[in-house]
Amino acid sequence: MNRQIAIIGSSGGNLYNLGGKEPRKLLDEILVQMESAGLSCGALQFIAAGVSMDAAKETTPAALYSWSSSQGAPVIIAEGTLQQVNQAAERLDREIAEQIELGEIDGIIVMSADPEGSNRHAVEACAKYKLPVTGTGGTSMAMIQAKGVHVIAASGTTGTTNRTRAVTFVTSLSKHWRIPYRPVIGTAQVSSSSGSGGSASPWRRINIRGMMMASLPGFIGMALVLAVSKIPGLSALSEVFDLMIKALPVILAAIAAKQVSELDEVSIVAGIVAGILSVEGGIIGGIIGGIGAGIIVHYLFRKCVEWRFPATTVNIVAGGISGLIAGLIVYFLIAPIALSAGEGIRTLIETLVSWSPVMAGLIAGLLIWPAIIGGVYHAAILPIVLLEMETTSNSFLGAVDMVGLVMVSAGITLANMIAPRDKGEAAVAAPGFAMNMGFGTFVEAAYPFMFSSKLVFAGAIASAGLGGMLVGLFGVRGTAYVPSFVGPITSNNTFGFLISMLASLLCSFLITFFVNKMSVYRSTKGTIGM
Question: Coiled coil where (predicted)?
Answer without folding.
Answer: 75-102
